# Entry
Amino acid sequence: MKKWILALAVVLLMLSTAAAEGLQLPDVGVRLGVEGELYGTSQEKSGPYHTYLYEVEMTLDEAADVIVDYTEAARETGFTPQSNAVEGALIKYMSFSDETGMADLALYVVDGAKELASGGAGTLWFALAVPDSMAFELGDGGPFLVEGGTRCVECGGSGTCAYCGGLGSCDYGAGYETCVVCDGSGLCNVCDGEGKY
# Structure
């Protein structure tokens, strides 16, 4: 009986350690194609937060695409996204939580408000505040984010046809014939060979 209780205690300890490690928050900079800079560290009630700043030139439509892609990547990784109210210079404010804490992503206009209002590009800041308790690594977009988009789920980012492995032909039982999925191109039919969308 004592061995059973000891084994159960070890299993519970392992599970609680795995839960404490949590998930790794993807870096929005990968999707933006820029490297984030540590802007500052602040002490909150829940512990220290590190804020990373990403400065980009883009339109509001492009920024909206980034937020949608990042939100989906965070959700697929296991985070719970939440849209928050905006005030002042904020354009968008999102939170991403898991059992280790809550990270925040905010979007600010820095310059070019007139251009942005008319559909042009302006200077924007993406600010990502990550609690010290949450796993995060600059430059790591996780399994879903790549520069300029979201990694294609069909080909896993390789750009090759998942059905024929990029060969352009498959053995359908009577010898090799043109792949019916990629029509012989060897390229992924979902992302057109780009590995992202």
Q: What stands out?
A: Helices lie at 2-21, 28-32, 60-77, 113-117. The chain is about 25% helix and 35% strand.
